[in-house]
Give the backbone structure.
Amino acid sequence: MARFGMVIDTTRCVGCMDCVVACKTENDVPEGFCRDWITTEVKGEFPEVQMEIRSERCNHCDNPPCVYCCPTGASHVEEFGQTVQVTPEVCIGCKACLAACPYDARFINPKGYADKCTFCLHRVKEGLEPACVSVCPTQCMHFGDLDDPNSEVSRLIKSRDNHTLLPEAGTNPRIFFLT
Amino acid sequence: MTAVSRRRFLKISTGATVGAVAVAGGSLRPAFSRPVEDGEVIRKIPTYCDVCFWKCGAIAYTRNGKLWKVEGNPADPLSRGRLCPRGTGGVGAHYDPDRLRTPLIRKNNRGEEEWVAVTWDEALTYIAEKMQAIKQQYGPESMALFSHGVGGTFLKHTVKAYGSPNIAAPSYAQCRGPREVGFNLTFGDAVYSPERTDIRNSKCLTLIGSHLGENMHNTQVQEFADAVGNGASVIVVDPRFSVAASKAKYYLPIKPGTDMALILAWMNVLVSEELYDKDYVEKYGFGFDAFKASIAGYTPEWAYPITTIAPQVIRDTAREMARYAPASLVHPGRHVTWYGDDAQRSRAIALLNALLGNWGRKGGFYTPTGMPVPGYDGYPAYPKPEREHVDNPGHAYPFADEELTTGIRNATITGEPYPIKGWMVYATNLLNALPNQEETIKAIQSLDLLVVVDVIPSEIAGWADVVLPESVYLERYDDLNAAPFREPFIALRQPVVESPDDQKPNWWIARELAKKLGLERYYPWTNIEEYLEARLAAGGYSFDGLKRDGIINGPKIPLYIEDGLEPVFYTPSGKIEFYSTQLAEHGLDPVPTFTEHPQPGPGQFRLLFGRAPMHSFGRTQTNPLLAEMMEENELWINKNVAGRYGLKSGDYTRLKNEDGVVSNRIRVKATERIRGDCVYMVHGFGHTAKGMRRAFGKGASDAELATKYVMDPVMGGTGMNVNFVTIELEGA
Amino acid sequence: MLELTTTRHNHLIDPGVHVWGWEIPIYLFVGGLVAGMMVITGYLLLTGRFRGRESVARSLPLISLIVLSAGMLALFLDLEHKLYFWRLYTTFEITSPMSWGAWILLLVYPALVAAMLIRPPSILGLWDGIVKLSGRVAADDRSVRWIGTLNVVLGVMLGIYTGILLSAMGSRPLWNSALLGPLFLTSGLSGAAAFVHMIARDRSESDLLVRADNGLLVVELVIIGLFLIGMTSASEAHIRAAGLFLGGSYTSVFWVFVVGAGIIFPLVLQLLMVRHKIRHTVVAPLLVVAGGIALRFIIVYAGQASHM
């Protein structure tokens, strides 16, 4: 059974937000909200500065606190790719998952349910990449099966320096940032 | 585990939940199945983008006849199937609630933005009458057209048919003009757009103020990422720690206004350490000895106090460039109108590249080829204007090879060399594109007619007598794009959806206007499809095929000297001119020299401006999708300096320039990413046009503060990075 | 120096997480108060004190039902997808404190109704059937013991749940403490003791409640101390979270309203009451109740501001 994840090469990313726009049009994300976003981390003092630019989104954690805290099972681990998904018609909008997510990756859709990145499973099922990955002009994003040792994502994680976000949160996030 | 329990629940309780689900009004569907629902009709229509002027091939999707999304066309060599955020957000141009909807005629004084909505017939009749009056009283040359982008093709045609040669675009004298002239003077050829830079294959890429990644010209950024991914050594020269700087091996935080000194010093190192490509220079160069003598004094030690870049860093970076030559590219930049000696600085960059031996070489500048598409056969000849171009009397700017916008503006104000009484402005917001808004407004006030054709009610539209609402690119045909590139291609723009209101495509507007002007014979075709079909048929291409695919790809072509392609230099000497006799003949420096530019005084900052990846100039701030990505611009100011003013990120402040112009309020970004002697903002914000409701009053406009500009003596470009500002504190 | 910028601007999430407004602290407070009242009710039932003529056991279950329903209303108001409320009761999610809470609340109602039957409030005396049923249940010691035990057990579960609801969230270090459950339980019991003290008419019950409350307030102080010590000796994120109360933005409200006016001052007053130095007034209990509300508000708000 596949376990989907992403590898994002921060050395290529320019933070253009194409991923954000593509996600919004692909998924009809309502105005004022986003399922993915750009974080810029600047260290040092001018001119000795380092900067990391990251395209961030739900980490589809192996150990997802949003799923654990959901009182209705609306937030769940989908069998397909073991991704974290929300079923709008089961969600009561209690916002426990919003509070539980250390990445602040969720929001309440104006229709009332918890909303977030789906890894574009509707595209993946058709053999396409998630919208953000497929649109990226710098090709900094890779999507695939982390359980397959021969997948591009697995190979990149093995061969390049990388980090995840807030590993100390114990969520085992599945988005890896190459540095 | 939770998933299991949920699935079990679904299995067990299906019967029980049916009624309840019906109440909720739908079946249980996980969120990820939402975008395409059962029974929806999805159509894909290829076209090419117009959110910037790169013209990427795109595929637009409609869902039940409504525009859904736009993706890159994989067959298109410019986008390689990946659009930039603006292209992806092009959907918002169609849905923009602030769009112009109907033709408008001015009600009260110019600039008050009070309108009467009229029919197309009324609007075009009004324009035609005014244009005929101008022709009778002043001659047809007294009508000028400012146009930016492929959409202006047919308006240019109508204006030429009418008899005026005065057609200009700010993309020349306010943008890339000096670069083209500097390269032309050196190599006998320009860089063009899309740039002929072989970034993809560069092993060392030097960017001087070019902020690739923030400047989002698609192919350039894609290739930049490829170069970075391939481990290219990147050298970035910028007073601001740009995105590109964060990818660089060497970041040179240069003092603004001193780039020429650095380039001269680099050349000095390459020559004095004999690191330059001697064979190449010997084979293709002209006047190298004079050049060598001329730059002998520009040592890194000389440049150090000017640029603040340490001599060792200058040497190291020059050696780094040489190490990878000829696959070592010093990017010529694009918006290069900075200090008024820009053509000479661009020439210096051209010469630096020549020393690296990269013109015509892999990893340097390739030789682009366009697909041969004949022009439309069947137009009558244009009337020959009795008077020459108005913009450059006496050829004061001897190497200007396109019309100067500010030259037309001057003539409009002064009436010399002859009066300009009518402006037609297509898709360019002159108020924010030209420096010194006061002069632009003064010129407008002496016009008999100002027509603006645009998709949004921009500032210049606010000053118009007649505003004509154009269909956005997703709703219209335009002329073909067969721009020379590394792979020849033809791209088609075709309508994807209907215009929502009474907007019309520019070809229709230009044609109807021509009819009103009695110039029908210049439009032998009735519909642009006939025009496109005729052009394509003449070249042996299929219109239907192009409509289906969006792109016709040409054969692979040799790009480099390595491919056996001998370079041809269209200079007087037929060689790369290290020494330019042309310049010398006009009393200009035959080899670039250093000119010291004024620096800001105490409490002053040089105002720098640039681009953001999700916006094109001031044209996208009302596009709801793109506006959301960046709602307003920020004032970048060094963190320590900001602290001295008691400013922190998120505070609002205003800027005041030396002429007393105070900006709109702008949010502070106190950052370690910029020098302390300059401030920076993204261009295109601080809109004052009432109709641009989404963008009105958000952020500040650099254009408003650019009251000073320095004319480039070589070609008439306007150096605009010469404005100094002070910080006006204000309570949030 | 770290310069962190994000382009995200989601409502309730940015610039700082604020998913829960007044509804959740009120709900948590009410939950704690009802939990405490259930424990008191259970105690009165188990000790036979409910038989006293003026025993507060007569009104507590009804008050609990009303107050709890108000709390449930607040919880309902907080839901963003209200029409789907019933989804809580189509599943039991073992890892979700909120699911536990939903089911506990479902059990709390019958327990309170049963308790109410033993000493029905006077308005229920209008129905003959109820009076008869009530007499039969009250006379059966086993039933009373069962109902009393049920109220104590469910009360403790409810009280702990209100804390665990938050402490289960690893993402918010301020909440992520094993002491939050005991703290909320103690605070709930103390608030309930104070509240019942205010409405009790039986003098012996009042004295008992004040004494109990004093003990609870002391325990609460100890737990708060341990909570902060634990927090400051954990991860960097926890230290930052504790900082919210130790010099950070919530410092003054926490120490003034929760610790000072909500615990120490009423504790002093109540100690004097117990020694009959001053008369029983509503001042001290009111302060305790207000302190309980303040605790919930501050923990809920500050917790959202704390971040990994």
